[in-house]
Design goal:
α2 (about 90-105) links the parallel β4 (about 80-85) and β5. By secondary structure, the chain is of the alpha/beta class. The longest helix is centred in the C-terminal third of the chain and has 32 residues, at about 235-265. The radius of gyration is 20 Å and the shape is globular. The chain has a 5-stranded mixed sheet with strand order 3-2-1-4-5, with helices on both faces. It contains 9 helices and 10 strands. It starts with 7 loop residues before the first strand and ends in a 17-residue tail after the last helix.
Length: about 350
């Protein structure tokens, strides 16, 4: 990927509960700042109204910090990018309104970015870069998608979840196990101390390349109820093995469909993206599968797995080169598709 296109832009990400800003200059990320929201932990999940209020509080200092880290002033910016969707409407509105106002004040182009495409394009922030075409398994709390990536801005969804996203399945399973929100990373941590074959849970296998994760949650719920009826301390005594077994089942469901997609398309360039791509079990098993099948596997750096503005900046950099600008009438799109 060539990085000789002269451009300085600011990117804003506010799709869920992270307020983030990044500065890109000539194709390179100069600053990437994220403000997390701990207010949701007490509620066991994201509260949309609280998220949007926190974005309003955080967005100005986050943008100022990003510019300061990059050693730039607002007057140096040649474009403003923002996440248009998908995401929470209130959260998206904070970022889109701020970006539109700043772009209008500076009289520079406005670039609307698809959040899920940006997760994939995070692979082009730093080498090694995937070669086209490649397959990307995009996994997060809100989405699970198998994507055929023909070019930077040419992507096609081959399969996706029909119910819960895999990240949601991790978090809800963690809640059943008594772990605090967000529970997905805790399952990953405990799983490293447990036996993945200790307990077996049914894996739903839909025809084609679509996923379904609701079945494993139901199976886990009834399994835990039955075991606790006999031993109230069952979860506590078997927590590591339970986490390892749940994680193993979910990861194998993902890799099975990924392998099918690779066989159907004859593509061996394989990438993962999204918040769940930080999962140690998924990363390790993908590397093993890649060695077995001759895949060239690309794992994103941890800082580019979860929601961040650097990926928005990279997508915007590529869109700018295609003069893909938004007009002032554009609005947030919580259900935005590819």
């Amino acid at each position: 990927m060539h990085r000789d296109y002269p451009l300085t832009l600011l990117a804003i990400e506010s799709s869920c509960d992270e307020t983030a800003a990044a500065v890109l200059q000539d194709g390179l990320i100069k600053a990437n700042v994220i403000a997390n929201q701990s207010v949701h932990e007490a509620y066991g999940g994201i509260v949309p109204e609280l998220a949007s209020r926190a974005h309003q509080k955080n967005i100005v200092p986050v943008v100022q910090q990003a510019l300061q880290q990059a050693g730039l002033d607002k007057a140096d910016l040649q474009a403003i990018a923002f996440t248009q969707g998908p995401g929470l409407l209130g959260s998206l509105l904070v970022g889109s309104s701020f970006a539109k106002s700043l772009a209008m004040a500076l009289q520079v182009p406005l670039i609307a970015v698809n959040h899920m495409q940006a997760h994939i394009l995070a692979h082009f922030i730093e080498p090694p870069f995937p070669a086209f075409p490649f397959l990307c398994l995009t996994v997060s709390g809100g989405h699970t998608q198998l994507v055929l990536v023909n070019d930077y801005l040419d992507m096609k969804i081959l399969g996706q979840t029909r119910d819960d996203a895999v990240g949601e399945a991790f978090d809800k399973s963690a809640k059943m196990l008594g772990l605090p929100y967000p529970g997905g990373p805790l399952i990953d941590r405990y799983a490293q101390q447990g036996q993945s074959e200790a307990f077996r849970f049914p894996a739903t296998d839909l025809p084609g390349l679509d996923f379904s994760f609701s079945g494993i949650k139901t199976a886990l719920l009834y399994f835990l109820k039955a075991q606790e009826a006999q031993n109230p301390a069952f979860i506590q005594e078997n927590l590591a093995d339970l986490c390892a077994s749940v994680q193993h089942t979910l990861v194998q469901m993902l890799l099975k469909k990924l392998q099918q997609a690779s066989q159907q398309t004859d593509i061996r360039e394989i990438a993962i993206a999204g918040g769940v791509s930080a999962n140690a079990g998924l990363r390790a098993q993908l590397l093993v599968k890649g060695q077995e099948l001759g895949w060239q596997v690309y794992l994103p750096k941890f800082e580019y797995c979860t929601d961040n503005a650097a990926m928005i900046a990279m997508s915007a950099y590529l869109q700018y080169q295609h003069q893909d600008f938004a007009d002032w009438g554009i609005s947030a799109a919580p259900r935005l598709k590819f």
